[in-house]
Amino acid sequence: MKFLSLNVRMSNGVARWGPFLALAVGGEFFYGLLAWAFPLPRLYARVPPVDFAKLTHYHLAAALGLLLAYVLLFGGLAWLMWSDRSPLDAAAIPWIWAGGGIFAVTLVFLYPIFAIDMLMYGVRTRLWLLYGANPFIVIPSHFPHDPWIGLMGEWKEISSGYSPLWEVLALIPGWLTEPAHFGWHVFGLKLISLAAYAASLFLVDRLLRAVWPEERAWRLLFFAWNPLVLLEWVGNGHNDSVMVAFLLLSVWLLVRGRDVMAHTALALATLVKVTPLFLWPLLWLWGVKQRSRWVDRLRYTVWVGGIFLGTAAVFALFLWPDPTRWQALHESDFAGRSPQALAILLGMALEIPHAFSRAQMVFRAVFLLGYAGVFVWALRAFPNARESRPITLVHAWLAVLVLLVALFASNWRPWYVSWLVALATLAAHPAWYKGVHTWAFTALTGDVFWTNIRWRFRAYFPPLVAHLIGVTWVFGVPLYVGWREKGARKA
Fold this sequence. Notes:
Elements: H1 2-37, H2 40-43, H3 52-55, H4 60-82, H5 93-108, H6 117-131, H7 164-176, H8 182-211, H9 216-224, H10 227-235, H11 240-255, H12 259-270, H13 280-289, H14 294-319, H15 339-349, H16 355-381, H17 391-408, H18 417-424, H19 430-453, H20 463-490
Helix pairs in contact: 1-4, 1-5, 4-9, 4-19, 5-8, 5-9, 5-10, 6-7, 6-8, 7-8, 8-9, 8-10, 8-11, 11-12, 11-18, 12-13, 12-14, 13-14, 15-16, 15-20, 16-17, 17-18, 18-19, 19-20
C-alpha cells in the first residue's frame, strides 16, 4: 500500500510539475544549442562580424526552427503564468531562480548572434583606453590600424550614442586585461550583462515581495524566463540590462520611502542610456504629490534639481568640447523597421514633398501630445499621501516608454521591449503584462522576418510592403492584445 501511495504521489507530481519541467528543460536545450553552435570564444574575432542569418547561410530551416522555439517558449510561459491549471505557487520560486540562473550562465558563452553592439562597446572603449580617443567625440575609423576596428562594421563612422557611465563601465574589462587579449574584454562585457540581469532579478523579487506577494511566483517567472530578456541582455550583451537595473532600483527605493534617493538611481540609469530622462518628470511629480506641505515640496524640488544638474554636469564633462558629435543627437537622421519609417515610406509612395521630415514632425508632435496626456493623467492618478506601492507611477512610466518606442524612435530595435518587460512585472492591469509579453514575442519573431525571411521575397516585399507587414506584426498584434484585455477588464 505504501508503494502504491508513493506511486500516486509521484504521478500527481509529474502531472502537476510536468509543464514547468518541460519548459525548463526545453529552454536550456534551446539556449545550450545556441551557445554550442555559436560559441563566443570561437566567433568573437571574426571580421567582419556575423549574425544568425549569415552563420546559418540564410537557410530557411534555421529561421523556421528559431520561430518554432520562440512559439514554444513564449506559449509555455503564457500557459504557466495564466492557465487555471498552472502549478505555480511559492514552492516554485527557488526553481524559477535556478532556471533563470542556468539560462543566463549558458548564454554568457553565446556569440551575440542577433546584434553586434557588444563588440562595438569593446572596440570603442579599447580605443579610449589605448589612444585616449573620447568615444563621444572621436569616431573609430580614425584608427584604421587597430587590429579590431573591423568588428565595428559600418558603425565605425559614428561616435557613441550612449551615456558616460556606460562607457566607463565598458572600459573596466579592457583596463583589467591586456590590450592584446581583446577576447577577455568581450567576455568581461558579458559578465557585466550577467551581473545586471542577476541584479534586476533580485530587485524584481524584492519588489514583488512588497507589492504582489500573493502573485510573486508567476510575476517572477514573467521576467526571469522571458526569452527576449535572456537573449538580448545576456546573449547579445546589450547595456539595456544595466539601465533597467537602475530603473528597478529607483522603484525599490520608492517602496522603501527613499524617493530622493530614487532620483539618484534614475540619474544613474540616465548615465547609462539617455532614455530614462523622459521618465524623470513623472518621478518628480510622484514625490511632489506625496508631500502635502508646500515647503516640503519646494525642498524636495531643490534636491531633485541638484541631482539633475549634477547629471547634466557629468554629460558636459564627457561631451566637451563638441557635444554636437554625440550620436544620440543624430539617431533620427535615418529610420527603419518602425511606424515612423512606415509613414515615411507611405509619404514617399504618395509623392508627398519632404516626406521624411514631415513624418518625423507629425510623430514627434503626437508623442508630445501623448506625453502631456500621461502627465495630466498622473496629476489625477498619483496619490496625495504617502504610498508604498508605486503602481500608478509604473503604469505612467510604461505608457511613456510605449510612446517612446512606438512614436519617438525612428529606428526599431527588438531589445527596446525589454525595458517594458521589467516594469510590466509590477503592473496591476492584464492589458500591460499580457500586452508586453505579446510584444516581446512579436519583437523576436519580427526580427526573424526582417533578417531572415523578408529578403526571400524581394520581388513581392518592396520596402513599403515589408514595413507594412513587419510593423503591423510587431506593433499591431500587441496593441490588439492589450486593447482586448482592457475591454475584458471593463466588462
